[in-house]
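Any chance you could type out a protein's amino acid sequence plus the matching backbone structure tokens because I've never seen that pairing?

——
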Amino acid sequence: MQSKSPGWHRDRDDEASEYRVAGDALVAFGDAHMSDGLLVSFRTSGAWDVEWVKGTRTYLVDLDGEIRLMSEDVQVRHGSVESHLDPHIEWVSLAGMADVESGADLQAKCEEMFTKLKFLRRAEDQLKALDPKWVAPVAQTLALMNRALVEWSPTSSHPSWYTHVTADSQSRRGEGLMDFQDLDGTVRTFDTHARFTPGHGRIHFKLDTATRTATVAHVGYKLL
């Protein structure tokens, strides 16, 4: 592998565009650009020790019956070592959101997309029944919560949230509105919540500092 290009080559049926990096045709670069994805390579030289790889795209266009060859400079996200992902964290955290079209889609993909979140059965049912206008905001809020949990340092008592997260007042906690049966059958108070819009949307959850995860108990309107 060290004797070959750091990009992984394969045959591709789509020949409408040609992508080159430093003069060399690179199919993987083209795949990453067309899918708005991430190019992964073996770290074989200093030229590839970058978070973004620049190249050129050459393609044919039909201009009123005249075929012309066009060229443009393009760049794609790249990673060959872990540190290369740092500037792409937000993109990674939201990856897959475009494929979520309904609450049922979101619920089905929770385990895959939100590795640091667990969901009570009632929360799963709420996700399945989400109003269509809430699907994207809820998905984005859950993604930001998950990102904060992934980055949660063991030396910190709480995550550094990327979305608006607050704890309910003592008086509201005393009303029992946020008490739900946890995954182990124990009734616990899920008094921390993230907000989402439109409307007065709330995602109530409980942190587990030992595993640096969170369990979601409620997804919907403000608990009254």
